[in-house]
Each structure stands twice: as C-alpha cells, then as structure tokens.
C-alpha cells in the first residue's frame, strides 16, 4: 500500500475500515449508535505483543456481542453513545479473580463480579443512562490501581444530541465561540469541526506497562496495590494500544487532513504516569478537563495529562503559522522545494510529531527512542483541499 | 485452551522506508530550503562537551564533583567558547524571519524550536525530516510574542536532559521592555496594542539530572539500523534504563541547588522595586512533576508562547491569578509568563519541588527569592 492510499484510510474517520491485511484498530470496535444499546462484554486474559515483540500478559475487556468486531482488545472496546441513551451491558467474568466495571467521574458501575469458578454467579447486567456529553474513562476499579494497570480500561464517549460542539448545550461561551469561528473567520479558514458521524475525532488512550507486574499476575501471584504504586517502572508507553512507528501513521490515532480541517482529540490516561503531550506545528485548544468544559480556553503546545485524567483538545489544523512568506500564497507554491525533497521518503505530505515531553515515555524496553508514546499530525493538502504532491 | 495473542502487526507494505527513517533518520545539510529573506540571523553549534562544577554539598552518583554536560554554543561569542548552560537565549521580535546557521562538532543533532511552528524540514525532528550533518540553516518566522525553548530532538530523552537546550524569546513589536498581554488590571496596560511595560525580566528554568545518565554516549540504547527489517525484534535494545529517571541533582536556570540553601545567584534570584512590573518566564526543563510556590500573587499572562486573551487566536482565553503561597504544577516543556507587581517591600520566597512523574516522590526542593525594595 502506498502512502497516499494509507492516508485515505485515515480520512475515513471513525468507521471501522479494513484495507488489505490491516487490522481494525481495537479502539473502534463500536456499534452504530441507537437509542437503546446492548452489549456483551467479558473479563478475559491475553498476551499483548509490544513493539519489540515481547509478549506481555494482560487482563482485558473482551467485546462479545453488540460490537462491530469481537474479541479482547487493549484498550477495551470503545463504547459510543448519545447523551440520554439507555445502555445495557451484560458482563461475564472469565478470570479466576473478582473484577468489576466503573465509569470514572460517575456513579455508573457494577459491584464486585465473582470469579469464573463461581459460575453462574460470575455475571452482572448493568443498565444505565448515558451521562452528559464528554470523554469518559472506564476501568475495573477494584484493587485500584492494579486491575486497570493490568489492562482493564477503555473509553466511553457520550455525544451531544445536537449543536456544533462536542458538548451540546452543556458548553461554555468561549468553547461555543471557538466552534462558531471555525471555518467562518479569517483566523480559521477552511471547515468547521464536523460532529459525528462525519466527524474528525480521535481517541488517544495512554497506558503504561511494567511487565514485571504483569508476569506476577500471569503466575497467579496477588499484587498489592501499594507495592504497585510505589514500584511501578514502566518499560512500554502506549497510545491506544500502539507505540512508536506503529502509532505514527495509522488510522484513528494519527491526525490526518488538509489545512483547515479541525480535529477533536479525546485524551485519556489509564496509567500511573503524568504525561506532558506536546504537539508540533499547531497550538491546540484545551476544551475540557476531567469532564469540566473550560471557559478559559488555553491555546498551548503542551499540557499535563495525569493518571485517570480525561482531556479534550481541539487541534485547529491551521497552516503552521511560522512558515515565512505570504499567507495568501498556497504552501504548494511557497515551499515547492521542500515538498519535492526525498530524504528516504518524500517530504510531502507534511508530517509532524505529537509526543509526550516526559521523554522517558518515548522509549521502549529502556531505550529505542522514539518508540513510545508518539503519533503524527499529517497535513495532506492546502486549505483549498488541493493535495500536496505524492 | 491456548491464550489469545494480540499481535503487534507488521510494517505495512510500502512503508518500509518510513519505518527505517523513524529508527535511523537520514542526514542532510545546507539550506535554507525555500529561502525567504531573513530579518535576523543567529548561529549555533552542537554539541560542546563541558563539565559543570558542582557546589559543595552536591555530588554525582559516584561521588564526582562535576557533571558532564552537552551544550549548545554560540560560535560568534568568544567568551567561554560561547557555551553556556542553558544555552544562550535567542531573542527575536514578532514578525521576524529568522535564520539559524547550525553546525556540529560531534555526532549528528537537530534543533527543535519548541512552540514555533515552521515546515517539517525546519522543525528539527530527525524522523520526520533529517539530522544535521555538517551544517544547516534553519528558517522560520516568529509570529507570536512569548516564551519558547529550543533543544536538540535526537534521542531526545537523553540529549535534552544532558543540557542541549536554551530559552527562546519573541518580543512584541514594542520591544524587549514590553510583554504581549491582554491584562486590563496590569500597570501600564495598552489595550490597543495588547502590551504591558516590563521593568524587570527574569527566567526561572528549573530542571534535573539523574547523574548516572550523564555517563552515557550520544546513541545510548538506540535501536539498531536494519534497512531490510527495520522493525524486527532483533533490532531493539533490551538493556536500556532511560525509562528510569531518578534525579539526584537539580537546578534553576543552570544554577545547581544545594539542598537547604536558597539560590542567591543573580541569574536566578530577582530584585525589583515596589510597584514595578516583573516578568518571570517560568520554563519546565526537566522530567519531573514540578510544584511551585511563590510568596507573591502572580498573574499568568502568557502560556506556551501565546499571550492569553489576545485576538485572534487567543481571544478564547484570559489571564488568571495564582494567589501567593498557592502551589501550582507544570510538566515538561510547559511555560508560564508570570506578571508580578508588589506594592510592598519584602523578600518573597519561590520554591520548586521536584516530584517523581509516577509515584510523586519528592526528590529535592530548590528555593530562590524575589526581593522588593
């Protein structure tokens, strides 16, 4: 597959697209939205291959029914609902320890679900109403933080019923003004943000892996939560289940589009590290932190995402503002030499990193920079949607 | 039943070059590419090795009295080889077109102009462009007045913390005695041009060292280059420890802190008169969670190079006050522009706690002061 084809897949957005041998990112194993949603999920185990092919034992949520695809995944299956939807999840615990489910920041959750040896008592049906629009982390809250660190976490997205922001009527004046201005003011030429389903939305779920603890879980050894918190020394730093080169030019993680195509990024941190994600080429707007929609909408290049935090960014995808030359000249005419330079690969389209600046997170297995928490923002064309040469 | 294996996946067909570039960036030199006339020019050289003498009471992990650093030098500055820690501040004006002639004395490097947003070939990231071989002239504009940093972006986890960084300031059109701000309460605020006059300017750039790291080489624990199988399991290093950062030496703006002794070096401590506007550029240059406490009210008028509340791009935000003695935190590479103004004379403490990024262990606390007379 050539780069151009790959980029097109990225533009397909949140629908689960299969091209060639490429797997569907587990992140988007979600169903089409409906007023009443029913899912079957289970607690299971799997070996997850890290970037260096080390296989690390995990406890995972498995999508069993109601999802576009089935099976265990890291992170767990993304659940997307609309504010007010009635949702039913039928859980089965197939592991030899008790487990549970909770949506962080809400009272939505199960009690302890007994282990597989207690069958048929190892099942729990949870019914709830989708909470206000926003980005939610779901976890297994038991033996906090052990069960979520071992892999039991995922994203729950609540969409608004209407409006042009991710928050419907529950927005703030400055967030509302920003979304009104996208595509309609001189500073934001191009498109408005497009709400789902024609959306430009991505989910970045941060997770850290210290295989020493996973090995103990695999051996059936109880992990003391205090020991984990004190001794946790991660060797792998994941973004939506991927790292390094494998996270950098892939659909549903990488930001891919023309200048003037703003993207919403929903960031969740299921781990224990304080991350400091930094985006090159554009400052981003911090829309929401831990379910609080911001009115002081900072336009910055680096932000803190601590343990259990959820943060929404709006990346405006304006033309990188510090390229010298007339703003009225299309980039394809302003930087023709760069766009046709080959340095192993063609320098077109324009590719920039997003990476965590707590740089230990850029390593895998203690080194191998930059094979950690990183992805790319790729500008494929000018604001008039004429593509850069490929 | 066999346990499920979730595979990593393989390099997509046709992306082998991209993956190889990710691991082993090409080198390149010359430039500038797609040149525009420069309005201001600088030169920088990477990297100059230097040993930072440690004050009494501070030692490296193995009892050493100095710390090996890698520095960015200004080749046009004859004093002390032009190499300082942090590197000499680059200062431009809003609207400048900047050329920086970058050379190297050892190995390959890049410079990333953190917060400034040019083309990829001028962004200084090896795996999305190239590493500099010989020399290269970076070109970019500085279109937003505020506080930035510049740093090497090769094996960044190591090259940054070894000292390859410096402050980058973009002044508003009114000049270096002003800060861009939409701060109606500030003394001397100009609501037409969105600026405030600055009487005293300071930079607090707190950072840390894990001195075990300072014995490492440039390419420590990097993945091996194999063009035929760039992502093969055998190319990955397995014995690295760059995921473990346990700082034993901390500094503010290059002045090493002696535990228990506030820093009095004038590069760090601030002296001003009552009712003067003091601008402090607070820049997180480390890998801990830094928690700051200042004995004065501080108004955050800028963040990450952008002036809060200034249209068009920053009109969705506004300056905010951090009350005196209220702890606040930043993580790596974040910057606050703090506006201080005290009607009262006094000595006001500033403290930085350096906390582990995972478990919150406080490694050290550094202090300095703002003296108002």
List keywords for this structure.
heterodimer, A: 390 residues, Immunoglobulin-like, 7-stranded mixed beta sheet, 31% strand, disordered N terminus, B: 373 residues, mainly beta, 2 domains, 5-stranded mixed beta sheet, 2 helices, globular
What is this structure's SSE topology?
The complex is a heterodimer of chains A (390) and B (373).
Chain A: H1 3-11, E1 36-49, E2 55-65, E3 71-73, E4 79-82, E5 86-93, E6 102-103, E7 123-129, E8 134-139, H2 146-149, E9 153-159, H3 173-181, E10 201-209, H4 211-218, H5 225-231, E11 236-239, H6 245-248, E12 255-257, E13 263-269, E14 277-279, E15 284-289, E16 292-293, E17 299-300, E18 310-315, H7 331-334, H8 336-339, E19 342-343, E20 345-346, E21 350-356, E22 374-379
Chain B: E1 4-6, H1 16-23, E2 27-30, E3 40-53, E4 66-73, E5 87-93, E6 96-104, E7 112-114, E8 131-142, E9 146-151, H2 156-159, E10 165-171, E11 178-180, E12 195-197, E13 200-204, E14 206-209, E15 249-252, E16 255-256, E17 270-272, E18 278-283, E19 289-294, E20 298-303, E21 306-307, E22 320-322, E23 328-330, E24 335-340, E25 346-355, E26 362-372
Parallel strand pairs in B: 2-8, 3-6, 5-10, 13-18, 17-26
Antiparallel strand pairs in B: 3-4, 6-8, 7-9, 9-10, 11-12, 14-15, 15-16, 18-24, 19-23, 19-25, 20-21, 20-22, 20-24, 25-26
């Amino acid at each position: 597959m050539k780069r151009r084809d790959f980029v097109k897949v990225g533009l397909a957005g949140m629908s689960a697209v299969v091209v060639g041998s490429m797997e569907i990112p587990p992140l988007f194993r979600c169903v089409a939205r409906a007023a009443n949603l029913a899912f079957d999920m289970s607690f299971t185990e799997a070996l997850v291959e890290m970037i260096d092919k080390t296989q690390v034992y995990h406890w995972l949520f498995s999508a069993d029914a109601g999802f576009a695809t089935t099976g265990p995944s890291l992170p767990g299956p993304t659940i997307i609902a609309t504010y007010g939807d009635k949702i039913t999840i039928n859980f089965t615990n197939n592991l030899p320890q008790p487990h549970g489910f909770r949506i962080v920041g809400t009272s939505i959750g199960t009690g302890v679900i007994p282990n597989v040896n207690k069958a048929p008592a190892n099942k729990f049906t949870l019914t709830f109403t989708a909470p206000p629009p926003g980005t939610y982390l779901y976890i297994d809250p038991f033996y906090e933080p052990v069960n979520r660190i071992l892999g039991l976490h995922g994203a729950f997205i609540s969409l608004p019923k209407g409006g042009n922001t991710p928050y419907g009527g529950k927005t703030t004046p400055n967030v509302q003004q920003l979304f009104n201005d996208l595509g309609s003011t001189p500073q934001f030429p191009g498109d408005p943000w497009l709400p789902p389903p024609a959306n430009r939305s991505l989910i970045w779920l941060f997770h850290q892996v210290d295989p020493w603890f996973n090995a103990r879980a695999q051996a059936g050894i109880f992990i003391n939560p205090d020991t984990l918190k004190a001794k946790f020394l991660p060797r792998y730093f994941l973004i939506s289940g991927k790292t390094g080169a494998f996270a950098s030019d892939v659909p549903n993680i990488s930001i891919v589009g023309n200048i003037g195509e703003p993207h919403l990024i929903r960031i969740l941190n299921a781990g224990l590290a304080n991350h400091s994600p930094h985006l090159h080429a554009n400052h981003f707007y911090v829309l929401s932190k831990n379910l609080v929609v911001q009115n002081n909408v900072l336009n910055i290049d680096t932000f803190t995402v601590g343990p259990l935090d959820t943060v929404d960014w709006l990346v405006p995808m304006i033309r990188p503002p510090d390229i010298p030359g007339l703003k009225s000249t299309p980039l394809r005419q302003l930087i023709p030499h760069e766009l046709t330079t080959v340095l192993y690969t063609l320098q077109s389209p324009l590719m920039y990193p997003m990476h965590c600046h707590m740089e230990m997170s850029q390593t895998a297995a203690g080194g191998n920079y930059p094979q950690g928490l990183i992805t790319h923002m790729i500008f494929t064309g000018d604001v008039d949607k004429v593509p850069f040469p490929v | 039943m066999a346990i499920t294996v979730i595979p990593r996946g393989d390099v997509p067909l046709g992306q082998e070059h991209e993956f190889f570039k990710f691991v082993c960036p090409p080198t390149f030199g010359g430039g500038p590419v797609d040149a525009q006339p420069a309005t201001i020019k600088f030169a920088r050289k990477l990297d100059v090795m230097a040993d930072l003498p440690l004050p009494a009471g501070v030692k490296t992990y193995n009892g050493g009295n100095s710390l090996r650093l890698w520095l960015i030098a200004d080749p046009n500055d004859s004093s002390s080889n032009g190499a300082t820690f942090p590197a000499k501040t680059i200062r431009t004006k809003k609207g400048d077109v900047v050329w920086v002639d970058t050379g190297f004395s050892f190995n390959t490097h890049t410079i990333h102009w953190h917060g400034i947003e040019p083309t990829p070939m001028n962004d200084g990231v090896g795996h999305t462009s190239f590493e500099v071989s010989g020399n290269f002239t970076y070109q970019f504009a500085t279109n937003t007045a505020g506080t930035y940093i510049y740093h090497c972006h090769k094996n960044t986890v190591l090259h940054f913390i070894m000292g390859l960084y410096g402050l980058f300031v973009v002044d508003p059109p009114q000049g270096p005695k002003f800060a861009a701000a939409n701060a109606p309460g500030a003394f001397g605020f100009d609501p037409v041009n969105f600026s405030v006059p600055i009487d005293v300017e300071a930079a607090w750039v707190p950072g840390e060292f894990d001195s075990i790291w300072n014995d490492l080489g440039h390419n420590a624990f990097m993945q091996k280059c194999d063009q035929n199988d760039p992502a093969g399991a055998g190319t990955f290093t397995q014995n690295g420890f760059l995921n473990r950062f346990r700082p034993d030496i901390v500094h503010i703006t290059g002045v090493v802190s002696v535990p228990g002794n506030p820093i009095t070096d004038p590069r760090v401590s601030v002296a001003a008169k009552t009712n003067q506007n003091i601008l402090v550029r607070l820049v997180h240059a480390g890998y801990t969670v830094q928690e700051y406490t200042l004995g004065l009210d501080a108004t955050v008028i800028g963040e990450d190079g952008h002036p809060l509340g200034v249209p068009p791009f920053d009109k969705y935000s506004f300056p905010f006050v951090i009350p005196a003695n209220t702890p606040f935190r930043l993580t790596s590479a974040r910057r606050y522009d703090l506006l201080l103004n005290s009607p009262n004379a006094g000595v006001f403490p500033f403290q930085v706690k350096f906390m582990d990024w995972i478990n919150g262990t406080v490694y050290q606390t550094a202090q300095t002061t703002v003296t108002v007379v």
